Structures are given as structure tokens and as C-alpha cells.
Amino acid sequence: MQIQQLSIFVENKSGRLAEITEVLAAARIDIRAISVADTSDFGILRLIVNKPDEAVAALKKAGLTVSLTNVIAMGIDDVPGAFSKAMRILADIGIDVEYMYAFISRKSGKAYVILRVKDSKKAVNALSSNGIQILTAEEFYGM
Question: How are beta strands 133-134 and 110-117 bridged, if at all?
Fold first, then answer.
């Protein structure tokens, strides 16, 4: 149960994010979650979109460097300690989180977190067997 994340190499210059999001808008791609990590010269734009294959095609056609990565989307109750519980489950089985980011959903009472880990299958099994909701691609893209 993984979803696909786009990673786009972005030159750190004015207007670049506008250009990228305009490509997606023209292709009628809906952004579900977004994260940017940057240095002084470049950044990595991470996106979860409703149609990842179509987004990759549109971005490559526009001359951008883009790749797809499998990530986990987990839903946790929006209460103190819920996120800590999920992180403890992963720590207890030796799973390191490479990076993560959260996003706002239309569904109240839940917080959603995107996780990138080395052993997704092990992480998904541990989280779901401990009551943590793992979203399928269909559930996530349909949000």
C-alpha cells in the first residue's frame, strides 16, 4: 500500500515554482501534498498528485527532471500522542524515516503524513497491525 510521489529538480530562481505548477494546471493535475527542500542553488520539489503518470509526462515534456518514488501515506488521529505512537512503532522495528511531510485534508479529525522509509513493506505491516491507517493510492488520490 504505497503511493507515488514526484520528485522534481528545481533551479532556485524566481518564478520556477510558478512555471512548474502551471504545467500541472494545464494538464489538469491536482496537487494533493507538497514539500520543498532547498539549497542556495537548487531544490527538490516533492509532490503527491492525483494522476502521477500524467504529471510525469507533462513535466518531462516541459523539460524538467522528474522521478517517481514510492512513499507511505498514513492517517493518524489528530490528538496529542498519535504521531508519537506511529514513530515509536517504526523505531521499535528498526525503520528509519528518511523524510516526511504532513498535509491538510478535507477529512476532519485526521492528520495525514507522507513517509519515505527504506523498508516500506515492513513499515506498512507494523503500522497497520498497530491500528495506524495506511492509505491506498485510490484513497489518497481521491481526497
Answer: unpaired
Q: What is the CA radius of gyration of the chain?
A: 16
What is the value of pTM for the model shown? 0.81
Q: Computed from CA positions of residues 6, 19, 23, 57, in that sequence, does the dihedral angle turn out positive or negative? A: negative
Secondary structure of the chain: what % helix, strand, coil (to 5)? 35, 40, 30
CATH number 3.30.2130.10 given to 3-68 = yes
Q: Which residues contact 84 (CB under 8 A, 6 or more apart)?
A: none
User: Which class in CATH covers the domain with range 70-141?
Assistant: alpha beta
For CATH 3.30.2130.10, list the domain ranges present in the chain: 3-68, 70-141
Per-residue pLDDT of the chain (143 residues; tens, 9 = 90+): 789 999 999 988 888 889 999 999 999 999 988 998 877 788 899 999 999 999 999 999 999 999 999 999 998 888 899 999 999 999 999 999 999 988 766 666 677 888 989 899 999 999 999 999 998 888 877 77
